[in-house]
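Before a colleague's protein record goes any further, I have to sign it off. Would you go through it and say whether the fold makes sense for this chain? Take the sequence as given and treat only the C-alpha cells as open to question. The record follows directly below this note.
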Amino acid sequence: PAEISGGMAKRAGIARAMALDPPVLFLDEPSAGLDPITSAGLDALIRQLARDLGTTFVVVTHELQSILAIGDRCIMLDKEAKGMIAEGDPRRLREESENPVVRAFFRREAMA
C-alpha cells in the first residue's frame, strides 16, 4: 500500500519471502532508496535473520556500510576485469587487499 514507508515495504518484502522458509534468499540492492538510519536497521534485520534462522542471504549492493554490516563473505566484481577481482571477509578486504580497484572502492566509500 502507498501508506507504508519505503523501509516498511522492504521489510514486508523480506517477510513475504521468508514465509516460504527458503534455505537461500537473494536480495538485489535491498537498501536502495532508504535513508542511512533505515538502511542500517534493514541491514541489522538481515544479519539477525541469517543468524537466527540459518538462512543464507546473497546480497547485491554497492553500499559499503551494508557490505560490512551484513557480510561474512564478499565477492567483488569488476566490469573492466570482466569478473571477480576479490573475495573474502569484507573487513579483511578493506584492510588488507592489494588489489588497487578494491582499495579504491573502500577508500572512495569511506570518504563519502
